Amino acid sequence: MNEQDLEQLREVHAGLAMVGLLMKGVYDQDIPSRAYQLADSMLIARSESAGIVSVKRHLKKEKAHDSN
Description:
- By secondary structure, the protein is mostly helical.
- The chain contains 2 helices and no strands.
- The N and C termini lie far apart (44 Å).
């Protein structure tokens, strides 16, 4: 991922965190800053290959069938 992708991912995480805070009933003036703090925590967790983020799909290679 390049810097632009990471910045957009941070914005998405912040938006989801903001919605989560609002659904939880938090109505403070510092919701945007808290949302960005949570977004930064999500990006750190993503970069640390721990938890569900570290799960990688293993694709099976299909064997070529001979038409002999």
